[in-house]
Specification:
By secondary structure, this protein is of the alpha+beta class. Belongs to the MscS (TC 1.A.23) family. GO terms for molecular function: mechanosensitive monoatomic ion channel activity.
Length: about 800
């Protein structure tokens, strides 16, 4: 039994002796001797520091807005990636060394076999713990590096998006070599990104021509080409046949044709592009990038097609007699190619810009696309007015008649030329984001204004056609509703005004919310982007959205209010049964409320919150207490006059010895026109606080009274009948109440008779009284009746003194 126990003990001792050199080597490799040990890195302290740097970068990125901030953050992110890679590289040899030591020790023996010494077991456990720790540290380091790299890519995207708001950032002139570098010498990253996307498109194209997809691909391709090239022309023939036969004669035909031309151009080109993109989107293996790019391409096509369609419709070179704007035929033919060129530029460079954003191209490539598109659009907008002016001069030289240019057309011409010049100047001095911003503002505002012009004509012409007494629809309305022509005219005016107002409001919303900071033209069509600010001129804080929104709100609001007031005053209210004073009061009240609303909207667009206007209210309170009492009192009095209407425009009033007609009630004062056409300005508060005689209030009648003195020897009845006859025969004297004669006085000088008659208005009293005096004198002379004369008595007194008394 003892011999059997000695054999395992001897074997264990022999194993320990054989492993002694290796254990010694393992001890040395783990740091006991330090001869072959690499430089150890204290990852337990460096890893938390790297993680803290990454978290700090993420917080700073969330608040960064300026280009300099994004540049510094990108540099810090790249530095963090480098530090994390260095730490991972430093930890890799330690992990390799530990793994080598574990390989020397070998795997742990199975239970029931050879028993290891406690030193070996402890050594293996320590090495396994070190391996686990080092593996976790390397994985964490790589995760930090990947996170920092992703953060760098995110910063690049944010910086590219920030260029949309930082319009005053100098990025370099288009004449510099840096601007053309993406085209002449693109970076490796951009080349790889575009090459990868190109390979995805190529794979989709090859798949589309495989056996199972070939027939559908050919069919959709031919159908797309047919619709795009010949679709609009195919629709022209039936519409030219339908318009003269189905639509009534008038201006509605030309506005309908213009709208149809715009829609047909947009739909044919848009559907054609949808069919082309469907060749790829129907495939099962098409990449997500290709699918996304196809959707963006369709939207961009619709946007560009609208611009081309509007240009073709407004110029109307195929139907010059139905052209909406008053443009001469030679000028329209000269401008025929410019809308198509403009739409083509927008489509090409909008596609490039979308592709840059899709593949994550560099900032330089993005700026190159933005600058080149702005350059071509500006050149197009400059060349068009130059060619038009040249053609006008040529027509005048040849004696041909040109169109009568309005002031509004001249202003539009000047604005387009100045805007194009600003774009070119911004590109030359290096403000490419500013040029891009102004370019898309010009495009969007031009598109909205053109659509508004076309749709307003369409709505007005449609209402006039539907409610015209000469059309079939107008005759049906007259017979069905039993209305007359005046009611139809009033309905046409009302419905056209409602339509124009709705279109103006939609246009205002589109102008205020559809621009400012969008990336591509298609985003102008479908997105409303809020801009919270940006750095201007490398230091100034510029918020373009708020400032431009406020300016547009002020201009549009003032124009809409002015146009609506003119429409109410001249078109709509005169067709109603309201009196002139009520119409004037309504127009004035509407105008005052409109101005208040415009001011409130403008302040809101500037970003001024009403809860932050306490200081303004306080300042106004102090101002009212010291110097604005009279102004506020007159303002409130003006509102009372407009609402209670004790006096109104057109009334004949008398106040403080001033008598005249009220011509206008303003916010602060009222204008009273006297008989000599001069005007007296009376503060509104006086009309409220003082006694005012309103001679025309309540449909007051005028009283024409004449008092005459006759001798004592006349026949009163004969004179009475004569006076009544004179009043009765005058056309202005009313029959009810009838004129009357009253015996006023009987004195030593004669008999005083007063005759009274009523006229329709106090304003007729003076002229009627004058006519009656002429007529009464004639009748008295014909009847040999004289008026009483002044009696004179002469008394003689001593001392040659005379006294005369009347």
């Amino acid at each position: 039994m003892q011999k059997m126990l000695r054999v395992p003990l001897l074997l264990a001792l022999l194993s320990c002796l054989m492993l002694t050199p290796f254990l010694s080597q393992a001890d040395e490799s783990t740091g006991q001797t330090g001869v072959e040990q690499p430089v150890k890195v204290n990852a337990s302290t460096e890893l938390p520091a790297l993680q803290k740097r990454l978290d700090s970068l993420k917080q700073r990125v969330s608040t960064a807005k300026a280009d300099k901030q994004f540049t510094a953050l990108n540099d810090d992110a790249q530095k963090l990636v480098s530090d994390a890679d260095k730490l991972a590289v430093a930890l890799a040899p330690q992990l390799t060394q530990v793994q080598a030591q574990l390989d020397v020790l070998g795997p742990a023996p199975a239970p029931g076999t050879l028993t290891e010494t406690p030193q070996v077991i402890s050594q293996r456990k320590q090495l396994n713990n070190s391996k686990t720790l080092l593996t976790a540290q390397i994985e964490q380091t790589k995760a930090i590096a990947v996170g920092a790299q992703n953060l760098s890519s995110q910063i690049s995207g944010l910086r590219r998006d920030a260029l949309k708001t930082q319009i005053a950032l100098n990025t370099g002139s288009i004449l510099s070599e840096k601007f053309w570098t993406p085209l002449l010498d693109p970076s490796d990253k951009d080349a790889n990104r575009f090459s990868e996307f190109d390979s995805q498109v190529s794979d989709a194209w090859q798949q589309a021509w495989e056996d199972e997809w070939r027939f559908g691909t050919g069919f959709y391709l031919l159908l797309a080409l047919g619709i795009g090239l010949f679709g609009r022309r195919a629709l022209d023939a039936p519409i030219n046949w339908i318009l003269p036969r189905w639509l009534p004669q008038g201006r509605f035909r030309r506005s309908f044709l213009a709208c149809f031309t715009t829609l047909s151009t947009m739909l044919t080109l848009g559907i054609s592009m949808q069919l082309l993109c469907y060749i790829f989107t129907r495939l099962p293996d098409t990449s997500e990038q290709v699918l996304e790019f196809a959707g963006q391409l369709v939207e961009l096509t619709y946007f560009s097609a609208i611009i081309a369609g509007l240009g073709i419709a407004l110029l109307s070179n195929r139907h010059p007699t139905w052209r909406l704007p008053g443009i001469a035929d030679p000028l329209a033919k000269t401008l025929a190619s410019f809308p198509i060129l403009l739409a083509t530029f927008i489509f090409i460079f909008g596609t490039i810009e979308q592709l840059n954003a899709l593949v994550g191209a560099s900032i330089d490539a993005t700026l190159f696309g933005n600058g080149l598109s702005a350059l071509l659009v500006a050149i197009n907008c400059l060349v068009a007015p130059i060619r038009v002016n040249r053609m006008r001069r040529k027509m005048r030289a040849e004696g041909e008649q040109t169109e009568a240019r309005s002031t509004l057309a001249g202003i539009i011409h000047l604005i387009i030329s100045l805007t194009a010049f600003v774009i070119l100047l911004a590109l030359l001095i290096g403000y490419i984001p500013l040029a891009r911003f102004v370019t898309f503002e010009l495009l969007w505002i031009g598109l909205v204004v053109s659509c508004l012009y076309l749709l307003i004509h369409f709505v007005v012409d449609l209402c006039e056609s539907v409610f015209s007494p000469t059309t079939h629809s107008g005759k049906i309305l007259k017979s069905t509703l039993s209305v007359n022509d005046r009611h139809l005219s009033l309905a046409a005016t009302l419905f056209s005004a409602v339509g124009k107002t709705s279109l103006l409001l939609m246009a205002a919303v589109a102008l205020l919310n559809g621009t400012f900071g969008t990336t591509t033209p298609l985003e102008l069509l479908g997105k409303i982007v809020d801009i919270w600010g940006g750095k201007g001129l490398e230091g100034m804080s510029i918020i373009p959205a708020h400032a431009v929104n406020a300016l547009l709100c002020l201009v549009i609001g003032w124009y809409v209010l002015r146009s609506t007031r003119r429409w109410l005053d001249n078109d709509f209210l005169p067709k109603t049964m309201m009196d002139r004073g009520l119409r004037a009061s309504l127009v004035t009240l509407f105008t005052n409320v409109g101005y208040v609303l415009i001011i409130m909207l403008t302040l809101s667009m500037l970003g001024i919150e009403w809860n932050k206007l306490a200081w303004i209210v306080s300042a106004l309170s102090v101002g009212i207490g010291f110097g604005l009492q009279e102004i506020v009192k007159n303002f409130i009095s003006g509102l009372i006059l407009l609402t209670e209407r004790p006096v109104k425009v057109g009334d004949l009033v008398s106040i403080s010895g001033v008598e005249g007609d009220i011509r206008r009630i303003n916010v602060r004062a009222t204008e009273i026109q006297l008989g000599d056409k001069s005007t007296v300005i009376v503060p509104n508060s006086q009309l409220i606080s003082q006694n005012v005689r309103n001679a025309t209030m309540g449909n007051a009648q005028g009283v024409a009274t004449i008092s005459l003195t006759f001798p004592l020897d006349i026949d009163p009845e004969q004179v009475r009948n004569l006076l009544l006859e004179a009043y009765t025969l005058h056309e202005s004297i009313l029959e009810n109440p009838p004129p009357s004669v009253s015996f006023k006085e009987l004195g030593p000088t004669g008999i005083v008779l007063s005759v009274t008659g009523y006229v329709n208005s106090p304003r007729m009293v003076s002229s009627t009284r004058s006519d009656l005096l002429y007529e009464i004198l004639k009748m008295l002379r014909a009847a040999n009746i004289s008026l009483s004369q002044t009696q004179t008595m002469i008394l003689e007194q001593p001392a040659n003194k005379l006294s005369t008394a009347e």
